[in-house]
């Protein structure tokens, strides 16, 4: 779980023991200053006390603090920060810095959160709780060495902290140390077997190890515990644990092939109240996965798939998924382990546009990249010049296959646009009509990312697309470029793999820098795809080093007019072509 922010012990040490607060407690009112008070009642009581204008200094700071706790229960982190900031102005305290840092953490502003936790540690005395919270912020930044060091300090100060063992295990899992992660999670469960989150984490580890039945068993017990009592930590939004649990069990049921139970779990995720970013991202993943399962339920039975064939022409049917050869029967754990070691890729090249500027090279680029990926062991789904229906079907078929993969690569060449901060891929039948919703005619990249979001998979997305906005007055750009028209370009994703995951991570590579146009090229391939095809199959070349070589070649070939760019949350080295 992203949010394991410990608070109650700190409150007792920093506020309840304060003489002026203890003497005034009866006057301040139990509704405002009792942690078990429902959020709305707490906020209302504290607001009325502030309105009396009878308190100042430390006493008034305490009221603002407790009102911030009420806002935190509701997930309104802007109000938490506002009230905590006022409390700090009136009378700084360790607990108040901790609470504000926790709110910044929940907003994803990790550097500011770390600064607040640093201030809390400087005020002292050193607290295992603050080390734990700062470790959470470092973990969310992907700085796992510092996170583990902080969790070590937290465990030294409080060796019975199940949360610190749980989160340190999450860091080890993210770094690929599944055995070390399992040891820490087991210790968290031993310390407090009533906590559901360590069981969810252990379920994910079992799934990564290929033991699907043990994964389902652990997460089922976590769901029972989460339903039996409220979260042990008041900083945990209600429902977030269940959302995480149902998402992870749904993924486990999918891996096992039990689609009906997976559907039920994803439906339960969508019924939950998501107030934090991780829960909202989990719901996005569940929505896509549920849609894919529902499509599969109504689709007619298919014969064994033939190897993918190249297709051309607007509206061409999507290619068949390359079939895996039949394998001898194996034990369930061995089957699951084989399933999670698969390497799959989706390659789409759209160039023959009917109503906007056609691009000659994307189909050539897609063929070249698909060939390279097959040569290094990827099972490739390939589609050329796809209309919207064919494009959606190809993508959805791929997302179903990717649930059993360890590495998934998506490559797209063609027109791409940004609208309202979201990126869209453009099918060949796109037509801009006055008064129409242009996004309805395109494919949302967020849907692909949500469908791939999983703790045990590495995702590599490569977009050789323009970075232009279709809402500008001029629809078609001039010159041999991959721009629908001049504009602001594609948006960098705000977060990568942020839903249910602190897993293997995601990398998105763009053919050009923000605000620039990716050239289609004068030859048979675009400058970016030509360079990519020369390096993607190099044995033992780590993926980010590979992209550095591609960037250098593109800059040289275009005389600096095009500079490829990437955004990564990868947690370790990834090799597309094995050593």
Question: How do the strands and helices of this protein lay out in sequence?
Answer:
Layout: H1 8-16, H2 19-28, H3 30-33, H4 39-52, H5 57-74, H6 77-90, H7 94-106, H8 110-123, H9 128-141, H10 144-157, H11 162-174, H12 178-191, H13 196-209, H14 212-228, H15 240-256, H16 259-271, H17 277-298, H18 332-340, E1 342-349, H19 362-375, E2 379-384, H20 388-402, E3 405-414, E4 416-419, E5 422-425, E6 443-444, H21 445-452, E7 458-465, E8 506-510, H22 527-535, H23 543-557, E9 565-568
Parallel strand pairs: 1-2, 1-3, 3-7, 7-8
Antiparallel strand pairs: 4-5, 5-6, 8-9
Quick summary:
Keywords: Signal, TPR repeat. With 579 residues, this protein is of the alpha/beta class. It has 23 helices and nine strands.
């Amino acid at each position: 779980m992203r949010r394991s922010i410990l608070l109650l012990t700190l409150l007792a040490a920093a506020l309840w023991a304060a003489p002026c607060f203890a003497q005034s407690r009866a006057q301040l009112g139990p509704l405002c200053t009792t942690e078990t008070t429902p959020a709305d009642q707490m906020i209302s009581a504290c607001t009325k006390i502030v309105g009396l204008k009878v308190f100042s200094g430390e006493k008034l700071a305490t009221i603002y603090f407790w009102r911030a706790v009420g806002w935190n229960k509701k997930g309104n982190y802007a109000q938490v920060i506002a009230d905590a900031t006022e409390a700090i102005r009136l009378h700084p305290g360790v607990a108040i810095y901790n609470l504000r840092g926790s709110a910044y953490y929940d907003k994803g502003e990790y550097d500011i959160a770390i600064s607040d936790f640093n201030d809390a540690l400087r005020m002292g005395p050193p607290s295992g709780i603050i080390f734990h919270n700062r470790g959470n912020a470092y973990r969310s930044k992907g700085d796992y060495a510092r996170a583990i060091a902080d969790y070590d300090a937290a465990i030294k100060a409080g060796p019975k902290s199940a949360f610190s063992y749980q989160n340190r295990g999450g860091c080890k899992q993210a770094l690929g140390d599944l055995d070390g992660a399992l040891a820490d999670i087991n210790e968290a469960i031993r310390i407090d077997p009533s906590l559901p989150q360590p069981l969810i984490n252990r379920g994910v580890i079992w799934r990564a190890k290929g033991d699907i039945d043990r994964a389902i068993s652990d997460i089922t017990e976590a769901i029972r515990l989460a339903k039996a009592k409220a979260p042990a930590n008041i900083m945990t939004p209600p429902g977030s644990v269940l959302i995480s649990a149902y998402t992870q069990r749904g993924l486990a049921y999918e891996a096992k092939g039990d689609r009906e139970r997976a559907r039920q779990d994803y439906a339960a995720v969508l019924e939950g109240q998501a107030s934090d970013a991780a829960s909202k991202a989990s719901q996005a993943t569940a929505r896509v996965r549920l849609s894919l399962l529902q499509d599969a339920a109504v689709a007619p039975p298919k014969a064994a798939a033939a190897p993918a064939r190249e297709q051309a022409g607007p509206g061409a049917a999507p290619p068949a998924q390359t079939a895996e050869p039949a394998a001898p029967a194996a034990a369930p754990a061995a089957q699951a382990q084989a399933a999670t070691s698969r390497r799959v890729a989706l390659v789409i090249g759209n160039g023959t546009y009917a109503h906007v500027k056609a691009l000659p090279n994307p189909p050539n680029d897609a063929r070249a990249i698909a060939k390279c990926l097959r040569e290094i062991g990827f099972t490739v789904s390939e589609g050329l010049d796809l209309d919207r229906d064919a494009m959606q079907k190809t993508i959805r078929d791929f997302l179903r296959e990717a649930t059993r993969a360890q590495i998934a690569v998506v490559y797209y060449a063609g027109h791409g646009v940004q609208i309202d901060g979201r990126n869209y891929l453009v099918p060949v039948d796109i037509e801009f009509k006055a008064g129409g919703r242009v996004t309805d005619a395109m494919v949302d990249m967020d849907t692909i990312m949500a469908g791939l979001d999983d703790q045990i998979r590495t995702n590599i997305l490569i977009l050789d697309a323009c970075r232009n906005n279709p809402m500008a007055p001029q629809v078609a750009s001039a010159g041999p470029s991959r721009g629908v028209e001049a504009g602001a370009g594609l948006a960098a994703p705000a977060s990568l793999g942020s839903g249910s995951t602190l897993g293997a991570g995601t990398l998105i590579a763009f053919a050009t820098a923000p605000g620039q146009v990716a050239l289609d090229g004068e030859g048979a391939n675009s400058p970016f795809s030509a360079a990519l095809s020369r390096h993607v199959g190099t044995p033992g070349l780590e993926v980010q080093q590979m992209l550095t070589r591609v960037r250098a070649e593109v800059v040289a070939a275009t005389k600096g007019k095009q500079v490829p760019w990437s955004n990564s949350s990868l947690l370790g080295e990834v090799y597309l072509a094995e050593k």
